[in-house]
């Protein structure tokens, strides 16, 4: 059944790679590699422009490890992102698809912004999972790594259902022990989109503004970038047809509803 639901950031590869070309991005950092589907495409792009790819992920899959062995030019940092970001150096573009919770994403963004400012580079960040279910509900792969003051009550067994604040016991969209969801949706410091909004608000309070595009498909792609970058207008025009596109949003809602129905059937003992 995992093959039934497209879920990778690589589904946005055409959009992202064209965006990297517009921004003339050579040095790229990705947070979250998993099987390396997006990593391979980023590495190809970096090679084509004589650039570099740094991949941050403490728990990659064997397929990524095998690919990495054959691609020594790719730098892999096997640490959690908030530790690894102290060592990566400057980059032209950043991709975030790691631990999908407020604490991690909020602090990733602030550290990335600090690196960009230190090296006088515009900010360009592509973020996955800004849509349901992680937009306003924390997801934890390693809840013990989140400080207690920022960690919501969570459950490995309960599943998320659109429109339901509470998790559904042994039903809905769930990680089957691979990750935990926060027990409630919404509220302060909860979810990836909330982290983005709080980060943008912090910068606004300091007199800085960012552009933000929301693409409501495949769990949601967000693109944050400096409004004063020399390529910002061209990138904005590239993203504009997809930004908050109502047709994409409807298709995503339908896709998730169909997938949740399959889960429901399987939970009930039926097979499709």
Description:
The chain is of the alpha/beta class. The termini are close together. Helix 3 (about 60-70) links the parallel strand 2 (about 50-55) and strand 3 (about 75). The radius of gyration is 18 Å and the shape is globular. It has eight helices and ten strands. Helix 1 (about 15-20) packs antiparallel against helix 7. Helices cover about 35% and strands about 15% of the residues.
Round the Cα radius of gyration to an integer and report it: 18 Å
Average the pLDDT over all residues and give the rounded result. 95
Apparent shape: globular
Report the order of strands and helices: HEHEHEHEHEEEEHEEHH
The DSSP helix count reads 8
Strand count: 10
Structural class: alpha/beta
Largest sheet: 7 strands, mixed
């Amino acid at each position: 059944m995992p093959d039934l639901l497209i879920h990778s950031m690589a589904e946005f590869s055409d959009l992202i790679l064209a965006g990297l070309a517009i921004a003339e991005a050579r040095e790229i950092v990705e947070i979250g590699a998993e099987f390396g589907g997006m990593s391979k495409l980023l590495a190809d792009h970096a090679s084509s422009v004589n650039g570099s790819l740094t991949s941050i992920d403490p728990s990659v899959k064997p397929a990524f490890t095998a690919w990495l062995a054959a691609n020594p030019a790719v730098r892999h940092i096997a640490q959690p992102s908030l530790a690894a970001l102290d060592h990566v150096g400057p980059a032209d573009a950043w991709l975030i698809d790691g631990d999908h919770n407020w604490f991690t994403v909020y602090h990733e963004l602030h550290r990335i912004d600090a690196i960009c400012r230190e090296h006088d580079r515009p900010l360009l960040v592509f973020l996955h999972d800004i849509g349901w279910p992680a937009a306003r509900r924390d997801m934890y792969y390693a809840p013990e790594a989140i400080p207690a003051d920022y960690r919501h009550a969570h459950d490995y067994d309960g599943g998320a259902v659109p429109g339901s604040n509470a998790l559904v016991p042994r039903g809905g969209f769930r990680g089957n022990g691979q990750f935990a969801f926060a027990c409630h949706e919404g509220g302060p410091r909860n979810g990836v989109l909330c982290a983005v909004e709080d980060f943008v608000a912090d910068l606004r309070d300091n007199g800085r503004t960012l552009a933000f595009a929301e693409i409501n498909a495949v769990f949601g792609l967000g693109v944050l970038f400096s409004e004063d970058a020399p390529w910002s207008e061209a990138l904005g025009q590239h993203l504009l047809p997809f930004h908050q596109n109502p047709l994409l949003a409807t298709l995503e809602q339908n896709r998730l509803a169909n997938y949740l129905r399959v889960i429901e059937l399987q939970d009930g003992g039926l097979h499709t």
